[in-house]
Amino acid sequence: MRLKPYERALKAFRYGEALDAALETRNPAVVITLLEELAARQGLAIALSGRDEATLEPLLSFLA
Fold it and tell me: In this structure, what is the dihedral angle of CA atoms 55, 21, 47, 30, given to the nearest 10 degrees?
């Protein structure tokens, strides 16, 4: 079975890329699961660091 883009990025410790890929799926279960996994890995801050308004917008839209 092929890994999804967010799974590949997560496995490679590319947390920001994994978050972006999960948000692109527009699947709430995928996004929530990935956020929980990032929190468990202490990777949430890494995934969010260095983002500007444009790159934060998809996450804020999802959360709203």
Answer: 120
Rounded to two decimals, the pTM is 0.92
Q: What is the mean pLDDT of residues 8-33?
A: 97
Residue for token pair 């996994």: 37
Written as one letter, the residue type at 18 is: A
> What are the angstrom distances between the C-alpha of 3 and each of 16, 56, 60?
17, 25, 26
Say if residues 19 and 59 touch (Cβ distance below 8 Å): yes
Supply 28's token pair. Answer: 């709430």
Give the SS3 label for residue 9: helix
Yes or no: say if 13 and 37 are a contact pair by the CB < 8 Å rule.
no
- Rg for the chain (alpha carbons), in Å? 11
d(CA 14, CA 5): 11
